[in-house]
């Protein structure tokens, strides 16, 4: 670590500065250390998956960019994930899509997948001190079409119901194996390009499909349902809208996934946290960065991500919120994309953990709104970055921009050689 002494000295000063506001930096570091991020496996390979089919990416999502070096098989995906995680302090999780099973060249259709197709992932995760989360995959399949679980055609609908039921079973086995509940996210793209005159019909079918899927109780997995505003080619109507899943989640005690790219651009996702916490058992986050639309740009430290982190901490909800990443950028070094996005999320969480919350709340209770605003402003430039550097130092991961050279080295030695 080239700046060890400098980093330690800066941290000592920062610790004292924060102490003047009664903030314990050691406690903040300890908390950050114990917040797992769920790294989305699909950033390694532009959401290609391991089914070895010719299926194009579908379902209203799109990866842009053709940067060389994407992972081409299970070994490369795993190596890249381990590499990406090696840049992060703390212990983390990997979020797998059902299309990333270890199929060993066998053609296994989505309604045939079993826990055995994910056994080697479970072992791999354990060996690498990682835990797994899971996602059903309704897109990029000949039966994906416009509608899956909301399809009036029973044979297509049953195919996807079976797929999703199997996914829950796989998640249950993963949770059991790893001794930590596997968070299973259900997102489907179902929708329509142009105005439908049957909004209620498809939503009612989706509700029934979900009821059937969730009829089997499990104790080692956590169900999450993810809403979306629109998809490419499904701009007018999304069956699984936010209102739909919020209603379903509240009624059926399910976690709602908030993907930061799935709302109107001026809507505050952070503001939803406190409301959901009052009415649902928890929240799954898909941290992303929408630019003009759900563009899945790499997460950075910005007001949206900071507000999200602050709300989690202000609500004291770390035990009820699972934090996953969800972006896919094929235009830059893909490992670099993981590192930037996951470290940005950690930086936001750290800033939130270092907020002088008690003092701010005292001001607010006393209606001293000038003081509240002033302290909120000043808190922005407190030396959180010295605490961040120190967090990286004690975790033996690159400090500051040092990771750039390491990512480039991996590119030179590994990803850059993939053709
Ligand atoms: C690949 C993921 O399942 C997908 O990104 C989903 O979570 C989503 O956000 C779709 O827009
Ligand atoms: Mn998402």
From TrEMBL:
<comment type="function">
    <text>Catalyzes the interconversion of L-rhamnose and L-rhamnulose.</text>
</comment>
<keyword id="KW-0963">Cytoplasm</keyword>
<feature type="binding site">
    <location>
        <position position="294"/>
    </location>
    <ligand>
        <name>Mn(2+)</name>
    </ligand>
</feature>
<keyword id="KW-0413">Isomerase</keyword>
<dbReference type="GO" id="GO:0008740">
    <property type="term" value="F:L-rhamnose isomerase activity"/>
</dbReference>
<keyword id="KW-0684">Rhamnose metabolism</keyword>
<dbReference type="Pfam" id="PF06134">
    <property type="entry name" value="RhaA"/>
</dbReference>
<comment type="pathway">
    <text>Carbohydrate degradation; L-rhamnose degradation; glycerone phosphate from L-rhamnose: step 1/3.</text>
</comment>
<protein>
    <recommendedName>
        <fullName>L-rhamnose isomerase</fullName>
        <ecNumber>5.3.1.14</ecNumber>
    </recommendedName>
</protein>
<feature type="binding site">
    <location>
        <position position="262"/>
    </location>
    <ligand>
        <name>Mn(2+)</name>
    </ligand>
</feature>
<dbReference type="InterPro" id="IPR036237">
    <property type="entry name" value="Xyl_isomerase-like_sf"/>
</dbReference>
<keyword id="KW-0479">Metal-binding</keyword>
<dbReference type="InterPro" id="IPR009308">
    <property type="entry name" value="Rhamnose_isomerase"/>
</dbReference>
<feature type="binding site">
    <location>
        <position position="296"/>
    </location>
    <ligand>
        <name>Mn(2+)</name>
    </ligand>
</feature>
<keyword id="KW-0464">Manganese</keyword>
<comment type="similarity">
    <text>Belongs to the rhamnose isomerase family.</text>
</comment>
<dbReference type="InterPro" id="IPR050337">
    <property type="entry name" value="L-rhamnose_isomerase"/>
</dbReference>
């Amino acid at each position: 670590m080239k700046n060890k002494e400098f980093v330690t000295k800066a941290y000592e000063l920062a610790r004292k500065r924060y102490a003047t506001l009664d903030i314990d930096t050691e406690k903040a570091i300890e908390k950050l250390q114990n917040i797992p991020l769920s790294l989305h496996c699909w950033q390694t390979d532009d959401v290609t998956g391991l089914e070895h089919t010719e299926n194009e990416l579908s379902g209203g999502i799109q990866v842009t960019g053709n940067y060389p070096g994407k992972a081409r098989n299970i070994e490369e995906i795993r190596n890249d994930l381990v590499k990406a995680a090696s840049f992060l302090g703390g212990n983390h999780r990997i979020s797998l899509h059902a299309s990333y099973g270890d199929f060993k060249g066998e053609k296994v259709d989505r309604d045939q997948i079993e826990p055995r197709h994910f056994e080697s992932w479970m072992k791999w995760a354990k060996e690498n001190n990682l835990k797994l989360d899971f996602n059903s995959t309704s897109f990029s399949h000949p039966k994906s079409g416009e509608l899956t679980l909301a399809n009036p055609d029973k044979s297509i609908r049953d195919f996807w119901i079976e797929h999703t039921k199997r996914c829950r079973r796989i998640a249950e086995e993963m949770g059991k194996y790893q001794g930590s509940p596997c968070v299973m996210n259900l997102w489907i793209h179902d929708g329509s390009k142009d105005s439908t005159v049957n909004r209620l019909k498809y939503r009612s079918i989706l509700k029934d499909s979900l009821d059937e899927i969730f009829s089997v109780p499990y104790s080692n997995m956590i169900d999450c349902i993810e809403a979306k505003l629109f998809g490419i080619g499904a701009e007018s109507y999304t069956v699984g809208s936010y209102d739909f899943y919020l209603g379903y989640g509240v009624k059926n005690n399910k976690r709602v996934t908030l993907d930061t790219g799935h709302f109107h651009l001026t809507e505050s996702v952070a503001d939803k946290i406190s409301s959901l916490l009052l009415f649902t058992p928890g929240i799954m986050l898909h941290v992303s960065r929408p630019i003009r639309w759900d563009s899945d740009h790499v997460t950075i430290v910005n007001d949206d991500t900071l507000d999200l982190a602050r709300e989690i901490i202000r609500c004291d909800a770390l035990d009820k919120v699972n934090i996953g990443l969800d972006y896919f950028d094929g235009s830059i070094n893909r490992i670099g994309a993981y590192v930037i996005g996951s470290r940005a999320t950690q930086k936001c969480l750290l800033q939130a953990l270092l907020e002088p919350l008690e003092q701010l709340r005292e001001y607010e209770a006393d209606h001293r709104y000038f003081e509240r605003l002033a302290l909120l402003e000043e808190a922005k430039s407190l030396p959180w970055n010295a605490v961040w550097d120190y967090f990286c130092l004690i975790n033996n991961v690159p400090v500051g921009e040092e990771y750039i050279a390491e990512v480039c080295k991996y590119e030179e030695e590994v990803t850059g050689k993939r053709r």
